[in-house]
Amino acid sequence: MSAKLPKGVATVAQLGEFDAILDARSPAEFAEDHVPGAISCPVLSDEERAQVGTLYKQVSPFEAKKLGAVLVARNIAALIEAHFLDKPKHWRPLVYCWRGGQRSGAFTHILREIGWDAHRLEGGYKGWRRHVLARLAELPAQFSFRVVSGPTGSGKSRLLEALAELGAQVLHLEQIAAHKGSVLGVLPDAAQPAQKMFETRLLTALEGFDPARPVFVEAESRRIGKLQLPDALIEAMRAAPCLKIEACRAARADFLLRDYAYFLERPQWLAEQLRHLRGLQSNETLARWNALVTAGEFRMLVEELLEKHYDPLYQRSQEKNYRYADAPVFATDDLSPTGIRQLAKCILADWHCQPRREG
Known about the structure:
Number of helices: 15
Number of domains: 2
CATH class of the largest domain: Alpha Beta
Largest sheet: 5 strands, parallel
Strand order of the largest sheet: 1-5-4-2-3
CATH topology of the largest domain: Rossmann fold
Radius of gyration: 25 Å
Order of helices and strands: EEHEHHEHEHEHEHHEEEHEHHHHHEH
Shape: elongated
CATH architecture of the largest domain: 3-Layer(aba) Sandwich
Distance between the termini: 44 Å
Number of strands: 12
């Protein structure tokens, strides 16, 4: 039997019981990751946190605590004045900091003294992280995944979106990771989240699924850009049945020219991304591809990338990792939005995956 929590302390399991979740950590800590739905309410700025930490190490804990008390009290007063004066007496906020200690303790104490039923999160953000990692280690095994595979340019990500629109359960890993998964998968205007944020978003997605229904996911490697998939998830995916999308190289090239149109608008940026292929392709090949970028010969570039880089990688990947041997094949050369939607309908019908009824 677990020990009874002190008054004004709540657990991760009680997150849904509160009207607001207040993150008392610094803005940089919040940006790296936070509890879903939390509001950034820093009781110390990034600079103030560094200042107090330096004083703690170089002078004494006592001097650091004096300065910290001044700054925390001032910032809490400003936060209450700016954001919470309109809250009614029955408002119930939950506050957390890094460990559930002094920063959230001070904030919670003042809120409770005012008369609100404020609580502090047991273990703080570190407690939340333990929860995320524990759940990601156990949750993937509860789902029946259906792995969508096919060579680059087969429209797999768009197919996942079409499946989702038709009511299927979809785990869109590249969307969560803000990356298209390949060496040229960097998005020009969207940075990837931190690993911790990626894992939080991944857990949120998984907890929204019904284990009684299949979950469609794309065949991914362990890494998507700079981010790594949890071991339990990649193991569950690799043990799951696959389906193959087959389309001719010309249709795939057409699709990529549409789907990666932002590359064509930024040829210099495209040339910089091609540098990531050093060591994978010869200097002569890379020089030719850069010349094609300069000349605006994008279709020829895409076709050569498929022929010399992506298709050989896909062929090698079929020999390991995923269950390709008995995978049903869905062939199409129509990778337009209409064609992909029709393909999604065929997959749902063939695999007897009934979508959720609307209305």
